[in-house]
Design a protein that fits this description.
four-stranded mixed sheet; 191 residues; single chain; alpha/beta
C-alpha cells in the first residue's frame, strides 16, 4: 500500500503491487496499469510419509481435482497462470502435454477407483492397505494464517477435493508455527 500512496503523491513514477493491493486501489488521477507475470509460485508441498499421501493415485487425484482456474479468478482477481510445473507455461521448456490444467474431477475419481479406493459411508474415499488397515483420504493442509490469499486458496482446495471424496482439514498457523511445522515435517500438505 505504501507504493500506491507514493504513486498518488507523485513521489514515485511506478509501483509494483500485488493483485490484492490493486483490487483495493482506487486511483486518483491518471494511472496506467500494466499486468505482467512475476516469478511468484503458490504450490502444494506433500509429505509422502503420510499413509494416504504415500499412495500415488491419491496424489494424482489431488492434482486432477483442484480447480486452479477458480482459484485464480476468485482469489487472485483473475491475475495468474495455472501450471502443473514450477515454471511458466510460456517458457520453451514447458511440455505441451501439461498445458491443460483444467479441473478433471472424473479423472481424479477414476485414478482412485482404479487403485482400489472406495467411498466410505461419509463419502470419504479409503482403501485397505497391505497391513489390512483402512487408509482414509483425509489429510490436513497447513497454511500461513498471516497470508489471507493463501488461506482462501487452501479453502478452495479443500472444496475441490471434497467433491472427489478427499477430506481436507485446513490448519491455519501463524508464520513461526507454520515454518516450524514445515521444517520438522509435521504436516500432511502445505501451501
Amino acid at each position: 500500500e505504501t507504493q500506491t500512496y507514493a504513486l498518488e503523491a507523485h513521489q514515485a513514477d511506478a509501483a509494483c503491487v500485488t493483485a490484492a493491493e490493486l483490487a483495493n486501489y482506487n486511483p486518483k488521477g491518471a494511472v496506467k496499469t500494466i499486468y505482467y507475470n512475476n516469478r511468484r509460485l503458490t504450490f502444494i508441498g506433500i509429505n509422502a510419509s503420510n499413509a494416504a499421501l504415500s499412495n500415488d493415485a491419491l496424489r494424482r487425484a489431488v492434482s486432477y481435482a483442484i480447480d486452479r482456474n477458480d482459484i485464480i479468478n476468485s482469489v487472485l482477481f483473475g491475475i495468474g497462470e495455472p501450471t502443473l510445473l514450477p515454471f511458466s507455461t510460456q517458457g520453451f521448456m514447458y511440455p505441451q502435454k501439461y498445458k491443460d490444467v483444467s479441473k478433471h474431477a472424473s479423472e481424479a475419481e477414476s485414478a482412485l477407483k482404479d487403485a482400489g479406493w472406495t467411498a466410505d459411508t461419509d463419502s470419504v474415499m479409503y482403501y485397505v492397505g497391505a497391513d489390512k488397515k483402512k487408509v482414509r483420504a483425509e489429510v490436513s493442509l497447513l497454511v500461513n494464517s498471516e497470508n489471507e490469499a493463501r488461506v482462501q486458496i487452501a479453502e478452495k482446495i479443500a472444496e475441490s477435493l471434497k467433491q472427489t471424496g478427499i477430506k481436507v482439514n485446513v490448519v491455519s498457523a501463524n508464520f513461526e508455527t507454520y515454518k516450524s511445522r514445515i521444517e520438522s515435517q509435521k504436516y500432511d500438505m502445505y501451501i
